[in-house]
Amino acid sequence: MSIYNPPSLQHLAVQSLLLNEASTISTLEYLPPHLFPPVFKEAFTGRHMQLLKAMVAAWPFSYLPVGALMETPNVELLQAVLGGVDILQAQKVRPRRWKLRVLDLRNMTQDFWDVWPSRKNLYCSTETESQEQVSSKLRRDVKVVTDLSLRFHLKEHQTCLLQWAQERKVCVLLCCVKMEFCDFPGEIIKEILDIFPPDNIEKMELSTNHVLPLLGHIASHFGHMTELRECHLTHIFLNRDMAVNTLAVTEMCAVQFLS
User: Fold this and answer.
1) What keywords sit in the KW lines (predicted)?
2) How do residues 105-150 score in pLDDT, each as one tens digit?
3) pTM, whole model, 2 decimals?
4) Domain, as residue range, for 222
């Protein structure tokens, strides 16, 4: 005999909120904070774009790891999430419960989504809330954290993110921790480095057969990469027509790159 496991009250509540999307959006300010993660996760999976956008803006925690939910890059989902940041940034004074500070687009662990924040982190004392409200009037920046892996050409979701970042780099803190470029034009790499502050880059990987031209484009940025921990140079050539990458040639390229 099979055992029937009825859905939990929370599951039923989440499904009800998704079915009444318009009503849910209009009443997000009253939604208990502990329901935000499960509702957001289901909205993300079900691609409820307008609800996603509104929930990003009204997110009641400081950290939102969206990248952990996005196994395969999706432009529409990315646009909805970034649209939520736009709504948040448009507020002259943030509502007290809108607390998003870091939007993480990296494909990292799902621990946040598997274990909801503890109850003690969901609510703040009146004094803390008052300080948060004052702070929000003085600081409007949201940090958007991402990794970039650009190989041969820009993909659609990368173009979407870079265009959005370019237009908002004055009001949004953009942070790229890891950058990978494979056979990518030096002038485009320079434009990307102009968007993302170099002092946030911790790891960089370059694969190119245009070492010297690339140096001309990005050399000035390396002096500002104060947090850089790793820099990998792979498949580098002084002559793009060279068929064999000998040890001597590799050493010569590396010396010229690092000098």
Assistant:
1) Leucine-rich repeat, Repeat
2) 998 766 677 765 444 344 333 333 444 443 444 344 799 999 988 8
3) 0.79
4) 143-258
Rounded CA separation 136/99 (Å): 8
3-state secondary structure of 2: coil
Nearest in space to 72 (alpha carbons), one of 107, 48, 98, 42:
107
Q: Does any domain span residue 189?
A: yes
Which residue shows structure tokens 């000998």?
Answer: 246
* Contacts for 61 with CB less than 8 Å, ≥ 6 apart: 33, 36, 99, 100, 117, 121
User: d(Cα 32, Cα 172) in Å, to the nearest integer?
Assistant: 28
- Sheet with 63-64: list strands edge to edge: 63-64, 102-104, 143-151, 173-182, 203-207, 230-234
Q: What residue ranges in the chain does DSSP mark as E strands? A: 63-64, 102-104, 143-151, 173-182, 203-207, 230-234
